[in-house]
Design a protein that fits this description.
By secondary structure, the chain is mainly α. α1 packs parallel to α14 (278-285) and α4 (77-105) packs across α17 (334-341). The longest helix has 29 residues, at 77-105. Residues 1-11 and 346-350 have low confidence and may be disordered. 66% of the residues lie in helices and 0% in strands.
Length: 350
């Protein structure tokens, strides 16, 4: 099926601005890690990261759901088996190899690393594999339009219940929840949203191109964040609405400016390339973060959001560039490319 811009939506052809958006989201991931691990900036430090984190991971999972959905796919037993044969090396084996190496270098035991809620930062791929499993089970058991409603309901329930602060005050149970990264299941809502947007893409585009949806989302996101000192911005519903409206605004920007992010422009080619190498960058970049920069406490003690964002962006771009160089060296060997990046070819992404 083609949308009104002539782009294959449900076929196998890649959508250029989606690759570019994924590349930009990968940049936001590295940028946030630079701010947290290099400058030790927290949520209490005045910075742009407070607003970027509202959209960053929701967008990553939204894109994952968006690229997963294909109208002609039937989630029968044969398809599910073939699907997970391809996904397990990418989402489980490859990240586990990098995680074990990273834990060893960081002098962290494997047990402590696995029961850490963030898996030393490597939680994303494991959680995405779980989301694939949730999605596949529902699509397999419910072969009707009700499957979408069930998935949406699951997403809402998980978003409400699964937060980093979730605990049952029982060490064994808490460790088990951390092992399966249940604290991150709140993002399943945005994964499902991505599949639904792809399924109803023409309708969604008409909504976004209408008179009210986009302006309302922009105003809501800006006003609520501007008055975060008097509004219940930490409330679960408010956090969800901020992530949703921020996601809509960012997605709309890349869709409306897709000519800028096409293969015809230098920035478009660059961002699309990064978008097709997100897995490589994600797995490698943790080894490249200059954590010793924490000795510079200027940004933490004397917040300068614009200067800090510029400094962090430069470091993030350098880290991504070095990660891509390392990735291309590793990919010279098809065998290493397969076992370290779960890929048979050089175009695998998250």
């Amino acid at each position: 099926m083609e949308n009104n811009n002539g782009i294959m939506v449900n076929g196998s052809q890649r959508i250029g601005y989606i690759d570019a958006l994924r590349g930009f989201t990968m940049f936001l991931v590295v940028l946030n890690h630079v701010a947290m691990l290099c400058w030790h900036i927290t949520s209490k430090t005045p910075s742009f990261h407070t607003y970027l984190t509202q959209v960053r991971m929701p967008m990553f999972f939204f894109i994952s759901g968006f690229v997963l959905y294909k109208a002609d796919v039937v989630w029968n037993a044969r398809h599910i088996v073939n699907f997970f044969k391809k996904k397990i090396p990418v989402q489980l084996i490859s990240p586990l190899i990098f995680l074990v190496i990273f834990l060893h270098i960081s002098h962290i035991s494997l047990f402590d690393g696995l029961i850490d809620k963030t898996k030393a930062g490597y939680w994303f791929t494991f959680v995405l594999l779980e989301f694939y499993a949730f999605y596949a089970v529902v699509r397999f058991l419910v072969r009707s339009r009700w499957s979408a409603w069930i998935l949406a309901a699951m997403g809402i329930v998980m978003y409400w219940l699964c937060w980093p602060e979730m605990t049952v005050h029982h060490q064994t149970t808490d460790n088990a929840l951390a092992l399966i990264s249940a604290h991150q299941w709140r993002f399943f809502l945005f994964f499902v949203l991505g599949t639904l947007v792809k399924e109803h893409f023409d309708t969604v585009q008409r909504w976004l191109d209408g008179k009210w949806v986009l302006p309302v989302c922009i105003v809501f996101f800006l006003v609520v964040n501007a008055f975060n000192d008097v509004l219940p911005i930490k409330a679960t519903i408010m956090q969800g609405l901020l992530s949703l409206t921020g996601l809509i605004v960012l997605f709309s920007f890349f869709r409306k400016k897709q000519a800028l992010f096409s293969q015809e422009t230098k920035i478009g080619r660059t961002m699309q390339y990064v978008g097709r190498r997100t897995l490589d960058i994600y797995l490698i970049h943790f080894f490249l973060l200059p954590r010793s920069l924490s000795i510079f406490t200027l940004f933490k003690d004397h917040p300068m959001p614009v200067i800090e964002l510029l400094a962090s962006s430069i470091i993030a771009i350098l880290i991504i560039a070095v990660a891509l160089i390392i990735s291309n060296i590793i990919r010279l060997s098809p065998w290493l490319a397969h076992w370290l990046f779960g890929a048979k070819t050089g175009n695998q992404g998250l």
